[in-house]
C-alpha cells in the first residue's frame, strides 16, 4: 500500500530525514516511535506531502511521486486524496459544526451530492460515538470528542491510508482511551494506518510493525513483541528504558 | 459663545428664525444623506472590500509581480491625502480627456482608499489564522483556493470585523469630503444653506448631529454582525 524509497527532507541546512526506506502492506498498522526531534512527525507529514520531501520516491495505493524532479500542486492534491490525516491539535474547522467538518471534504473536494454526504457523515460520526453531537461546534466539545471528529473528517474522504500524528498527545489522560478505542476499531476493520505516538500500550496491542526512529533514520523495525521485549539496537534499548 | 447666546435670548425673532432654519434645512440634508452620503458609503464599502480582499490575496500570494503591484498600490494610497486623490480624479483627469461625474468620481476615490486600508486589515487577519487550519484543509484534499475560500477567509472575516467597523465609521464621515468635488451629499447641503443665511454654527452642528446619528445606527448593526459571527467561539 505504501512504499518509500530514499526519502530525505532538509529544512535549510538541517537534514531531518536522512534516507528512509519503508513499506507498509494493505491493512497493516505501523507505529512509529522515537525521541522528539527524531523526524517521525516529519516522516508522517511527507507521506501526504504537507512537507515536500527533498528527494526520494513516495508511493501510496497506485500513485507515485518522485521528488527527484519538480512535482506540481495538482499532482500533490491528487496524491493527498489517498490519505487521511489526524493531527495532534485536532485542527477542526472552528466555524463549522461537527457534521459540517465531516461533510466538508466530500462536499467541496469530491463535489458529492449534499444529501448523500450528510447521510454518510452522520453514519461516520455515529461510528466514532458522536452521533448525538453532530450539531455542536468544536468549542463545545471535549478534546477527545474533537479528536474523534478529526478522525471522522479524515474517514469521510474514504482514504486508503490513515495517518495519525500523535493523536492523543494533547489530550487529558482520561480522554485518551476513547480516541484509542476508535483507532483500534479502525485497525480491526482492516484500515492501513501509520501512527506516530507515545502510547506504547497501543503499539503493543495494535501494531503489526513498530519502527524506532532517531536522528532522521530508522534505527530498528520489527514486530512489537520483538522491539519491546528484545530490541537489538542499543539506542532502541536506551529509548525504551527512558520512557518506561 | 456668550455673545451668541445673548443675541438669541435678547431677540425672540432671532430664535424663531433659527428654529425655522433648523427645521427647513433638515429635509434637504436628510435628502443629501439618503441620496448620496449613505449610498456612497455602502457602495464604496462593498467595492472597497472586494478590492481589499483581492489586494490582500495578491500580497500573500507567491507570485512576485502581484505582490509588488499590491504593495505599490497600498503604499501610494496610504501615503497621499484622500482629498488630493479625489481632486486628481475629479479635477485632474479631465485634463487627459477623462471626465467623470462627481458621484462616480467619489465612488472611485473612496473605493480605492478603502481597498488599500482594508487590505492591510484583511491580510493581517488571514495571516492570523493558524497554519494547522491550512493543513487540515490540504489534508482532506483541498486546493489552495478551496482552503482559502472555505476555511481561511470565513475565519479571517470574523477577526477583521472590529477593525473594519472602524474603517466603515471613518468612511461615513470621510464622505463629507465629497462635498469638495461637488457631490451634493449631506454636508454640501449644509454648506449651501449656510451660504444663503450665514447661520454656520447652527447648520454645521446640525450636520454633525446627523452624522452622529447615522454612525450610531450603523454601529448597532456592527454589534449584531459580531454577535452572529461569534456563534462558533467560546463566550
TrEMBL record, chain A:
Molecular function GO labels: ABC-type amino acid transporter activity; ATP binding; ATP hydrolysis activity
Bilayer topology term: Peripheral membrane protein
One Pfam short name: ABC_tran
Major localisation: membrane
Gene3D superfamilies: P-loop containing nucleotide triphosphate hydrolases
Keywords of the record: ATP-binding, Cell membrane, Membrane, Nucleotide-binding, Transport
GO cellular component, one term: plasma membrane
Source organism superkingdom: Bacteria
Cellular location(s): Cell membrane
Residue ranges occupied by any ABC transporter domain in the UniProt entry: 2-240
CDD domains linked: ABC_HisP_GlnQ
InterPro entries xrefs: AAA+_ATPase (IPR003593), ABC_ATPase_HisP-typ (IPR030679), ABC_transporter-like_ATP-bd (IPR003439), ABC_transporter-like_CS (IPR017871), MetN_ABC_transporter-like (IPR050086), P-loop_NTPase (IPR027417)
SMART domains: AAA (SM00382)
SUPFAM superfamilies associated with the record: P-loop containing nucleoside triphosphate hydrolases
PANTHER family: AMINO ACID IMPORT ATP-BINDING PROTEIN, L-CYSTINE IMPORT ATP-BINDING PROTEIN TCYN
Protein name according to UniProt: Amino acid ABC transporter ATP-binding protein
